[in-house]
Design brief:
By secondary structure, this protein is an all-alpha fold. The protein has one domain: Na+/H+ antiporter like domain (Na+/H+ antiporter like fold, Up-down Bundle), CATH 1.20.1530.10. The protein is built from 18 helices and 2 strands. It has a two-stranded antiparallel ribbon with strand order 1-2. A hairpin with a 6-residue loop joins strand 1 and strand 2. Helix 11 crosses helix 12. The radius of gyration is 22 Å and the shape is globular.
Amino acid sequence: MNNPSRAGNPGAFLRRDTTGGLLLLIAMVAALVIANSPLGDFYFGVRDAHVGIGVPGFDHTVGEWAADGLLAIFFFLTGLELKTEFVNGELRNIRKAMLPVVAAVGGVIMPALIYLGINIAAGAEETAMHGWAIPTATDIAFAVSVLAVVGSALPTAMRTFLLTLAVVDDLIAIIIIAFVYTESVRGLFLGCAAVLLIIFWVLTHKYANWFMAKHWAAWVILLPLGVATWWCVYEAGVHATIAGVLLGFMVPVMKTTPRVIRHEDPEMGLAPALEHRFRPLSNGLVIPIFAFFSAGVAVGGIDGIKSAAADPVALGIVAGLLIGKPVGIFGAAWLMDRFSPAEKDKDYTWFDLFGMSFVAGIGFTVSLLVAELSFGIGSPHNDHAKVGILFGSMLAAIIGGSLLLARNAKYKKVRAHGVDPDVYDN
């Protein structure tokens, strides 16, 4: 495995949280500019152009390929990350993980309630209610990137909290997509997907060391098997990105002796190795392409912005991200700390957590996906939802980033006086 810290390594550059967030931001801005320029018709023509090979399940528009196909790679990495957290990370220790886990649940429930409340109060039609899950998501790449940019001196425990919260948030989003946005299931294809997943599990467990030693093997053997699983899941009627998560969960996290995991001296296994290899692909290609073809919406100038602002769908999303997320996350964390054995890490303050709760309101990637699943590409509600997602996420990034930037200055002074914030009781 290449050394990720080696200078001049393009892979190491693409693995950075800040790089992923920066490329995502560039793709988002480019999509908005082009979609609202004289090239707008060309942009939408490319997005809606069909690309296929004449096989059922392999004929989609470019935009659908980005959302249903490429994004499966992002969710594969999410599955690897979730598995690692459960086996050898923060989610392994229930008491330690309890606070960010419950905070994540609060950060899902409150935005959904606010969205529904605004749409019900506005007398919105029933189709508008389908978007209740849009403001519940936290974009891992974007949120962690903001924290990395503004928080060079922040305690490590803050990143751990935000990452754990975002991972659990993604898990909840995956469950919502699987159960809420799946209309019917075809048992035969689901059974085929299950068989392929079992084969994937056997290969990655029995020959884990071989796949780690032979870098080409994952591309030649595991990738085609993953594509076949993706196709079966899609044909089964389940959103195809779920295949990525399930495949990620099949990969072993730690090296093992012939019978037991060496808990006393754990060695990382195939999951971290695959995450290391695929992360540049996700950060450098998958997420920017998805963002480029999903974020593009013809705003229509001032009139278009007014139209979106008058739609309770957009208002509900903005309020959910800017109010629901902070209230749900901070409120749930405070209640857990106050009334349960779970405790906030003493390395950061409640004000730090308040700032992080705003950063968690950046709902870009998964929110855009849920919006398309809720309303369909090109529908008025979907376009207004995109405006709400972009506006709400931008404000959440600015507010949360500003709060944490101020805290970062404070922690820099603490470090300058020779005190380590990671062991400093504020």
